[in-house]
């Protein structure tokens, strides 16, 4: 796809040597030399981005050609390719798709690629050019690439916002209808998501049409100012946050909404003064003291015991009878795996699937099951992907190994659960508690 051809093993070894050499960069030099070094290293980073893009695009073309020759149906030829790229870059599958999309765009934007190779454009600014021209056809995208990047001085001095505005102006002049369609499609992508923040907080993100978003911000700000004027001692930001919770849930933020939150905590941390962190499903670890405080302030709780090894934290089984949720293998896998089991992917579990496929004789057991996000589950069904559970000794955490079409192997090991009290019980099991905060 690119004239440079496929990267060979000798080239990879040369790059690895460069990485080792960079570890010794710096030393006793004057500040002027340090500034020059910072600029040169930035150029190297940009050139690396260009090299990765070319390699990814060539890899995709090669993989699709091989699959076409092997008779793989067209709709399945690209399955798993972005995941292979993500694994190579130690990144999530979502980011792998973005990396591949960027590489595909560089095929149509040779001047942008050239600026990257020369270190005159960094990865983020190149991403802006790709993102803002994504709705255009190939001819228009290539045209904007020539208008803005053929001369390196055209974008000199522009900030990210100015660059974004410039690209949008050029795109609108070339294909205003495509820009309108893009805006209409964006409304269909509206959604609400959450992600962890620092200090046991979380972000609630709403992607909305701009008029709705501005209206929400203005209304919350107006009402917060009114309460502050009436003597409310909370800060304006605190009041706006509390008002948002109250209006979404219909219940005062002080009381708290009636929801179900799954909390995994060791018996020692729950009933004694253990310091082992608890785990909140969908968020991550929280301090043991905070978890005990949550439990203390709740009246409607349900408990389910699970059994694990106190040394390794390996989950072995779960209580077969629950007063709150029906028992099931999927629940066991959720508690054991927490997030998608693919390396570098921490997306929520959406599929509980066989490691060795059921149609290939794989049993429906905990050892042959893994929690995966939708993208990773589909990726492992690509041609040439193979996976196999790793035989474990008693007390070891669940592990499985998978091989991608290039022959590279990766291993996934389940995270340890909170360490329980070392108390001997029948069948050599140790007890810990899974606490469910039920409505």
Count of beta strands: 13
Please give the alpha-carbon distance between the first and last residues: 57 Å
Shape: globular
Q: What structural class do helix, strand and pairing data support?
A: alpha+beta
Q: What is the count of distinct domains? A: 3
Helix content: 40-55%
Strand content: 5-15%
Keyword list:
alpha+beta; 15 helices; 6-stranded antiparallel sheet; endonuclease; disordered C terminus; globular; 3 domains; 439 residues
Give the helix/strand layout:
Elements: H1 9-22, H2 31-69, H3 81-88, H4 93-108, H5 110-117, H6 123-132, H7 138-149, H8 160-174, H9 176-188, E1 191-196, E2 202-207, H10 210-229, H11 236-249, E3 261-265, H12 267-271, E4 278-280, E5 284-286, H13 288-296, E6 301-308, E7 315-318, H14 329-337, E8 351-354, E9 369-372, H15 374-379, E10 386-389, E11 399-403, E12 409-413, E13 431-437
Antiparallel strand pairs: 1-2, 3-4, 3-13, 4-5, 6-7, 6-13, 8-9, 10-11, 11-12
Keywords: Endonuclease, Hydrolase, Nuclease
Protein name: HNH endonuclease
Domain HNH: 340-380
Compact summary:
The protein is an alpha+beta fold and 439 residues long. It is 45% helix and 15% strand. The strands form four sheets. A six-stranded antiparallel beta sheet has the order 5-4-3-13-6-7, sandwiched between helices. A three-stranded antiparallel beta sheet has the order 10-11-12, with no helix packed on it. A two-stranded antiparallel sheet has the order 1-2.
Report what the structure shows.
This protein has 439 residues and is an alpha+beta fold. The chain has 3 domains: 9-186, no CATH class; 192-249, no CATH class; 262-413, no CATH class. The protein has 15 helices and 13 strands. It has helices at 9-22, 31-69, 81-88, 93-108, 110-117, 123-132, 138-149, 160-174, 176-188, 210-229, 236-249, 267-271, 288-296, 329-337, 374-379, and strands spanning 191-196, 202-207, 261-265, 278-280, 284-286, 301-308, 315-318, 351-354, 369-372, 386-389, 399-403, 409-413, 431-437. The chain has a 6-stranded antiparallel β-sheet with strand order 5-4-3-13-6-7, with helices on both faces. The chain has a 3-stranded antiparallel β-sheet with strand order 10-11-12, with no helix packed on it. A two-stranded antiparallel sheet has the order 1-2. α2 packs across α4 (93-108). The longest helix is centred in the first third of the chain and has 39 residues, at 31-69.
């Amino acid at each position: 796809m690119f004239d440079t051809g496929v990267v060979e093993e000798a080239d990879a070894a040369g790059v690895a040597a460069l990485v080792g050499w960079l570890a010794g960069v710096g030393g006793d030099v004057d500040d002027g030399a340090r500034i020059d070094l910072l600029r040169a290293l930035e150029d190297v980073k940009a050139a690396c981005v260009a090299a990765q893009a070319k390699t990814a695009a060539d890899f995709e073309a090669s993989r699709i050609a091989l699959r076409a020759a092997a008779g793989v149906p067209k709709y399945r030829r690209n399955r798993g390719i972005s995941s292979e790229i993500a694994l190579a870059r130690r990144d999530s599958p979502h980011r792998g798709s973005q990396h591949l999309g960027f590489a595909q765009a560089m095929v149509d934007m040779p001047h942008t690629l050239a600026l990257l190779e020369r270190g005159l454009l960094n990865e983020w600014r190149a991403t802006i050019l790709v993102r803002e021209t994504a709705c255009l056809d190939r001819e228009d995208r290539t045209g904007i690439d020539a208008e803005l990047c053929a001369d390196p001085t055209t974008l000199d001095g522009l900030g990210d916002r100015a660059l974004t505005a410039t690209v949008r102006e050029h795109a609108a002049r070339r294909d205003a209808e495509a820009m309108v369609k893009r805006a209409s499609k964006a409304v269909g992508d509206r959604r609400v998501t959450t992600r962890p923040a620092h200090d046991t907080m979380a972000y609630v993100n709403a992607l909305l049409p701009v008029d709705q978003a501005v209206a929400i911000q203005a209304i919350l700000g107006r009402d917060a100012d009114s309460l502050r004027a009436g003597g409310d001692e909370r800060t304006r930001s605190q009041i706006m946050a509390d008002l948002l919770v109250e209006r979404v849930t219909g219940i005062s933020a002080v009381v708290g909404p009636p929801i179900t939150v799954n909390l995994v905590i060791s018996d020692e941390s729950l009933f004694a003064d253990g310091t082992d962190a608890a785990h909140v499903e969908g968020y991550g670890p929280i301090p043991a003291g905070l978890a005990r405080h949550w439990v203390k302030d709740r009246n409607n709780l349900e408990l389910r015991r699970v059994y694990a090894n106190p040394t390794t934290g390996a989950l072995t089984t779960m209580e077969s009878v629950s007063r709150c949720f029906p028992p099931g293998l999927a629940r066991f896998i959720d508690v054991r795996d927490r997030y998608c089991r693919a390396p570098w992917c921490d997306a929520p579990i959406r599929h509980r699937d066989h490691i060795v496929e059921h149609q290939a004789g794989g049993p429906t057991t905990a050892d042959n099951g893994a929690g995966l996000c939708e993208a990773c589950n589909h990726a492992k069904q690509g041609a040439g992907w193979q996976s196999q559970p790793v035989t474990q000794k008693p007390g070891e955490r669940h592990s499985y190994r998978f091989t991608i079409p290039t022959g590279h192997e990766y291993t996934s090991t389940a995270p340890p659960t909170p360490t329980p009290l070392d108390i001997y019980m029948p069948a050599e099991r140790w007890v810990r508690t899974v606490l469910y905060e039920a409505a």
